[in-house]
Amino acid sequence: MRKYFCLRCGTRLRRVRKAGRTRPVLTCPRCGWINWDNPAPTASVLILRRGRVLLVRRAFAPARGAWDTPGGFIEPGETAEQAARREAREELGVAVRLERILGIYPDVYGPEKRPSLNIYYVARIRGNGSAVRAGDDAAAVAWFPLSALPRRMAFSNNRLALRQIKRDLGVR
User: 40-169, what's its fold?
Assistant: First the structure.
């Protein structure tokens, strides 16, 4: 959500570029409050098994009906690892073991293009994975070969992470 007025005093914000800053930021000329517009952190999991990745079809906007990696916004007081495990439980109904960080990809979220910073983990399902089901905000789940991913992905950070895992594994 774009902020046009100061959250402290209500004065209209002005775009200001001060010495030493790389970009102009919305600043209150009266009280000095700065709207840094920092990205919101997310945690996602790429769950792999036999050359395939588990994806969820989004049930709600934004990108309703598009394929996505299981994940979501990190809640206050939660680590990225805890968030990744929680999102897997909520969206897939399974526990996962996080193996490593794949990468961190900046993006934007929703029609207001809210900045996000998306942390991706490579993960494996604990157990045999027979309990996988669409839950929470997932309309469906499906395994896709890394060599034949769906065309309609929800976010550019999905495509970047999937491209990276394919490179890491030597998949074309």
Answer: Nucleoside Triphosphate Pyrophosphohydrolase (3.90.79)
